[in-house]
Design goal:
The chain is an alpha/beta fold. The chain has a single domain, classed as Metalloproteases ("zincins"), catalytic domain (Collagenase (Catalytic Domain)), CATH 3.40.390. The two termini are 27 Å apart.
């Protein structure tokens, strides 16, 4: 994990989420990813360059294009947007939720078509429920 922000997050939570996906066979046992925590300016520039969208976003995923290797790709999370949209839970939980979303994209899931959106949403709910059961990340 590369953290270029002042946001603190326990890497063990993110490693646990990745392990859940390995257990569910969404990823093979050797799978690895690179996570970068960034802020507005950089992620807006990356969003423009690679997606043609001149806007802020919360998470970007870049799947690895090399077949048959354990590295699955890169995920960049915008901690400033995550902080704005976190609702009544902690920033750490919002980052974990965005990490789940990014991992599902790296696993080949998408939310453009309704059928794909429904499948991805079910996986998101499953892992968010597991997160809620194993970690207390609500605001106090």
């Amino acid at each position: 994990m590369v953290n270029e922000t002042r946001t603190k997050i326990e890497p063990a939570i993110l490693q646990e989420i990745l392990q859940w996906m390995k257990t569910d066979l969404v990823f093979e046992a050797e799978a690895t990813v690179c996570l970068k925590l960034s802020e507005n300016a950089e992620i807006k520039e990356i969003n423009q360059k690679y997606r043609g969208k001149n806007a802020l976003t919360d998470v970007l995923s870049f799947p690895c294009q090399i077949p048959n290797i354990p590295f699955k790709g890169d995920i960049i999370i915008n901690t400033a947007v995550a902080d704005q949209q976190k609702g009544n839970h902690t920033l750490e939980k919002e980052i974990a939720i965005l990490f789940i979303h990014g991992l599902l994209h790296l696993a080949g899931m998408d939310h453009i078509r309704k059928k794909d959106q429904a499948k991805m949403h079910l996986f998101e709910l499953k892992y968010q429920d597991m997160l809620n059961k194993t970690h207390s990340l609500s605001e106090t």
